[in-house]
Amino acid sequence: MIAPGGDGRGRRPDGAGPAASFEIVEVQTAAGGVIGLARLPGLRDGRFRWDLLEDELDRVAEWGATAILCLIENDEIPDLDPERMLFETRRRDIGFLHLPIPEGTVPGAAFDTAWEGLRGRLIRAVGKCQRPLVLCSDGRGRCSMIAARLLIDSGMQVEAAIRALRDASPGALRDREHEENVRAYARGR
Predict the structure, then answer these.
(1) Global pTM?
(2) Which long-range contacts (CB under 8 A, 24 or more apart) does 6-10 make?
(3) Measuring CA to CA, how many Å separate 152 from each of 91, 116, 148, 157, 182?
(4) What is the structure's pLDDT at 79?
(5) What pLDDT digit, counting tens, does each position of 144-170 carry?
(6) DSSP 146-184
């Protein structure tokens, strides 16, 4: 399911061209919970725009996000102020977790160590019908790897998790390295 304003392929609901609005792609867990994937609110055409942030974070709050897991590195997006992002999310009663993965890579040892301490909180949140939202620069690459981990950790088989993500978000797990990382993660569980 896509919420609000697009079909997950960058097109408006009326099919008339590129979707300019902020989109959250929803993926259902095996237990019926929901995980969202999106690009960083305020990011448009590779640039961070503070004038878009408030409206897009309001949409995140309306969607019902209880926590945001941001995978973007601090220096990846020019003009991004992590402290202000933290303030704006907390102002909307949304938790903000920052666990960066460098663009174009898969999680490394430091991420995996931090993930072990964090994943239990996120899985419990999904089990309590809370809605975590995973963010990266395009809402598909790194997000889909980490959403796949959450799906697997919440009881979904790896093939079903990959299929669910690709059905919900064309372009999810598009890089072979991303898909291999998900499969390796599942084998290690």
Answers:
(1) 0.86
(2) 8/168, 8/169, 8/170, 9/170, 9/171
(3) 31, 14, 6, 6, 9
(4) 79
(5) 999 999 999 999 999 999 999 999 998
(6) HHHHHHHHTT--HHHHHHHHHHHSTTTT-SHHHHHHHHH
